[in-house]
Amino acid sequence: MHFRIVASLIAAFIVAALPGLANGSDFPHYWDGREHVAKPDLSTVERIRFVTTVDYPPFNFVDATGRISGFNVDLARAICNELGVTAICQIEARPWNELEPTLESGEAEAIIAGLKPTAALREKFAFTAPYIRLPARFMALKETTFPEPLAKTVSEKTVGVIAGSVHQAIFADYFPNAHWVGFPTRELMFKDLQEKKIDVVFGDGSDLSFWIGSPEAKSCCAFVGGPYIAPQFLGDGMMIATTLENSKLVDAFDFALKAIEEKGITSELYLRYFPVDFY
Known about the structure:
Layout: E1 5-7, E2 48-52, E3 55-56, E4 60-62, E5 68-69, H1 71-83, E6 89-93, H2 96-104, E7 110-111, H3 119-122, E8 125-127, E9 136-141, H4 150-155, E10 158-162, H5 166-174, E11 179-183, H6 186-194, E12 200-204, H7 205-212, E13 221-228, H8 231-234, E14 241-243, H9 247-262, H10 265-273
Parallel strand pairs: 2-6, 2-7, 10-11, 10-12
Antiparallel strand pairs: 1-6, 3-4, 4-5, 8-14, 9-12, 9-13
Helix pairs in contact: 1-9, 1-10
């Protein structure tokens, strides 16, 4: 069945008062505070319709009330609020394979769904600066010690990774002399970690953060070491895409992204949807 949810956020695109920089977060700053980004004139823009999906929680999903929700959706709200264009902002959910055609046909002005800016896509789309990156992280039982230097410690441990994943490739590249075990599923990997059949796992920080806070984890585990951004493997981060003809929207979105980062809004949204800090 063709799935299409249209959720006009015109009336709802008013962001509730958000606190300043959220406490307890190591969320990185993507903007140099000394960098000046001018606010473009959007007086001739008649509509800003974002398209996203609903199958990538906590970034994009349908909540219990049937509304499109998630980090990306609230970020879009904050952008429109910062630009003062709430009245012309909308968001629509479509299947992943329809996002690019929807943008190209002019049915939408922007994609906010984690579309990676490959060289091929940059030939037809314009992208904002990144607003979040999803680093790789190590996770171990809380009782396990991981003294520095971490590279030496890891070389003495058995590390679990998802077989054939990008995180396996990152680990093999960064720690060529370490011993790793490939797992077909995350569930089996986590089970072996809890049963001490492996010492540590290496994977997507956002995914691991949710498992750390889940009932299944039983408060067993925590991150060790720091985040691995690895752009050569993981890309430049999540960005908003527009058509090349609409590239002035990129300037507008960048202005808003910088402003809401400085106000602490991005960090607050991050901790709202990722209660276990993966940075």
